[in-house]
TrEMBL record:
InterPro entries recorded: dITP/XTP_pyrophosphatase, ITPase-like_fam, RdgB/HAM1
This enzyme's EC code(s): 3.6.1.66
Signal peptide: none
Source species of the chain: Roseiconus nitratireducens
Name under which the protein is recorded: dITP/XTP pyrophosphatase
Record bears the keyword Metal-binding: yes
Active site: D70
Gene name in the database record: rdgB
UniProt key word Lyase: no
Any one GO biological process: nucleotide metabolic process
Reactions mediated catalytically: dITP + H2O = dIMP + diphosphate + H(+); XTP + H2O = XMP + diphosphate + H(+); ITP + H2O = IMP + diphosphate + H(+)
Length: 206
C-alpha cells in the first residue's frame, strides 16, 4: 500500500480526490490530519507552479510523498482572470460567496456568447526529498451564468454551466461531475503514471 499525503485542507476537494484514489490501494492522509504540516505560500504565476510549490515544500518538510493540486477558473472576457487568484478573488481566501459576487460584477453586461470560461487543474506529486516526480493537468470548458444555481459543489460551481447538460456544476450530482471535471481529468492522466512509479519502486526495492 502506497502512503500518500493529500496536500489540501479543502474538505470538498478531499472528497473528490479520495473517490479517485481508492483506499484499498493507497493509505491517504490530509493535511488536517497532520499537526506538523506547514502552510505553503502560493506565489507561483501559474497553476502548475503553485501545485509544484505546494507538493515539493510540504514533502521536504514532512519527509513524505505529497500530492498537491492547484486549480481555478479562467474567464475569456476577463483575460483569463481570476486564474491563480480564484480562491481569493473577492479579497478573502476561500470566501466562495464573495468570489462569485465579484465575478458577476466583473461580467455585468457581458452577453452570454462571450461568457466562456474554463476550469483548470494541475497536479504534482513530490517524493520525500522535494523532487517533483509526476505532473498532470486537466481542463473543463463551460460558460458563466448571470446568477448562481444549485447547492452542490464549491467555488464557482453555482455559476459554471456545462453546456451539454444545460446545468451548473452545483446542479449536477457528484458522479456526473466526477466524469467531467477538470480535477477528474487531471487525475485520469495522473493515475497511470503513479501506478508505473509504484511498480518501478517495488521492483527496485526487491
Amino acid at each position: 500500500m502506497f502512503d500518500l499525503v493529500l496536500g489540501t485542507h479543502n474538505r470538498k476537494k478531499l472528497i473528490e480526490l479520495k473517490l479517485m484514489l481508492p483506499e484499498q490501494h493507497y493509505r491517504l492522509q490530509s493535511l488536517s490530519e497532520i499537526p506538523s504540516a506547514i502552510e505553503v505560500e502560493e506565489t507561483g504565476a501559474t497553476f502548475t507552479e503553485n501545485a509544484m510549490l505546494k507538493a515539493t515544500e510540504q514533502a521536504k518538510h514532512l519527509g513524505r510523498w505529497v500530492l498537491a493540486e492547484d486549480s481555478g477558473l479562467a474567464v475569456d472576457a476577463l483575460g483569463g482572470a481570476p486564474g491563480v487568484y480564484s480562491a481569493r478573488y473577492g479579497g478573502v481566501h476561500g470566501d466562495d460567496a464573495a468570489n462569485n459576487e465579484k465575478l458577476l460584477a466583473e461580467l455585468a453586461g457581458v452577453p452570454p456568447e462571450k461568457r466562456t470560461a474554463r476550469y483548470h487543474c494541475e497536479i504534482c506529486l513530490s517524493d520525500p526529498s522535494g523532487t517533483p516526480r509526476i505532473t498532470a493537468g486537466g481542463t473543463c470548458g463551460g460558460v458563466i451564468r448571470t446568477e448562481p444555481s444549485g447547492s452542490g459543489g464549491f467555488g464557482y460551481d453555482p455559476l459554471f454551466e456545462i453546456r451539454e447538460y444545460h446545468r451548473t456544476f452545483a446542479e449536477l450530482d457528484l458522479t456526473v461531475k466526477r466524469a467531467l471535471s477538470h480535477r477528474s481529468r487531471a487525475l485520469r492522466q495522473f493515475l497511470p503514471q503513479l501506478r508505473r512509479l509504484i511498480v518501478h519502486a517495488a521492483a527496485t526495492d526487491s
